[in-house]
Amino acid sequence: MTDRFEGLADHLLNGEVSLADATRLLERSMIEGALRRNGGNQCAAARALKMHRNTLQRKMVEFELGTPRRKPAGRAGHIRRKRSRTA
Predict the structure, then answer these.
(1) pLDDT tens track of the chain, all 87 residues?
(2) I need a labelling partner for 40 at 20 to 30 A (CA). Which of 1, 30, 57, 86 fits?
């Protein structure tokens, strides 16, 4: 595995690819692969990548990898109505 990675690094250096561009390419590719392997399940993909789901969703937006599906916020900001007391 290390030999293959070193070969890739040499290939990128010979192609004059910057470290920032290489990092971005690798990150995007790993995120796409994790999502594909997990059938689009973002929680499972985030687990496979050992990152938080929110970080995965932020990076999906950054790399334009579809629209992240956010979990409902629950009752955050929800105003509870008082029940009427009819006998």
Answers:
(1) 888 889 989 999 999 999 999 999 999 999 999 999 999 999 999 999 999 999 999 999 999 998 777 666 665 566 667 777 776
(2) 1
Q: Is the dihedral of CA 63, 34, 4, 2 positive or negative?
A: positive
> Whole-angstrom distance between the N-terminal and C-terminal Cα of the chain?
74
Domains, in order of start, for the chain: 2-62 (1.10.10)
Angle at 61 between CA 58 and CA 62, to 5 degrees: 85
Work out whether the CA dihedral 10, 37, 49, 55 comes out positive or negative: positive
Picking from 33, 30, 12, 10, the residue whose alpha carbon sits closest to that of residue 22 is: 12
